[in-house]
Amino acid sequence: MIARRETLLWAVQRATAMVLAFCVLVHLATIIYAVRAGLSAGAILGRTQGSFLWGTFYGVFVIAVAIHAALGMRVIVAEWLRMKGAAAGLVVGAFGALLAAMGLRAVVAVVAA
Amino acid sequence: MPDGGPGANLRVAVWRGGSDGRYQSFEVPRRASQTVLDVVTYIQRELDPTLAYRFACRVGMCGSCAMTVNGKARWTCRTHVDKVAADGALEIRPLANLPVVRDLVADMREFFDKWARAKGQFVPKTTREQPFARIDPRSRQRREADAAIECIGCGVCYASCDVVAWNRDYLGPAALNRAWTLVNDPRDAAQRARLEAVATDAGCHACHTMMTCTELCPKNLSPTRSIAGLKRASLRLLLGGGAE
Fold first, then answer.
1. Could B200 and A4 be called an inter-chain contact, meaning their C-beta atoms sit closer than 8 Å?
2. What is the CATH superfamily name and number for domain B109-238?
């Protein structure tokens, strides 16, 4: 049913937005700390490699981005390209999957020991 | 006499014809406390009796005289020329996002059909045989309904909404605002059906919260707030909280 689906997608976008708000703050704080402390790339990798915490944090961040951006793109393709239904689902799903794949690849590169 | 002051002439460009029409220029004498509706009426009575426009009450109650004035949708009977024509020029055309009938008259059918699609009709739970419902005026629901109830159906919000322009199926701010007043009416029996009708990608979930409707509503209502309320109500329904 349309109302159930649309309400669910709206709720998911709201929920991922909240996750993103938290993740962006932590990410910014991390950047500022790393720059001010003058950490080298090697020192940063020394802290992230093998770290379950950083792997989980950035994994969640990437998944939230992929879902949130794909849902936003769904509205844009509907309004700008008049694309709805299965075709829109395919385009938007592919976009989300691309974001997730690129993001998770970066997370693995930084976290894998 | 300064340009645009009383005694000077207003330069008025008025839309003529259908959607493929064009502007026609008129000179209208400037008067004190003159409204945009006064200007249009002057043109029709004194300069060109074939000009088509719509009005009824002239006092901001009926919602029939809305037009696009210098690029913004406004209720013309309560819009003073002083406020909108600083340089003595007016450009008046029919409301946007609606088909043009002729000249300044927009076809309001789809606007009001969408009120029906948003289930904007009251569906009573009881009959006249039963006692009156008692609604506490301080209750949250009564206050929510009060905040949204004064809509006069002028269509200014609908004509100003970018989402309406992008998505022709979008129900629009006024219809959703109306639905919100009924969602807050404990006497109404159609809550679930109404929320299912409005919680779609052509309903409350299509709103981008740009607030143009709230900015321009001549009654100072906030359809944006009503639509946000519908989003929350639809989530409660999804989570099994039921329609209130």
1. no
2. Alpha-helical ferredoxin (1.10.1060.10)
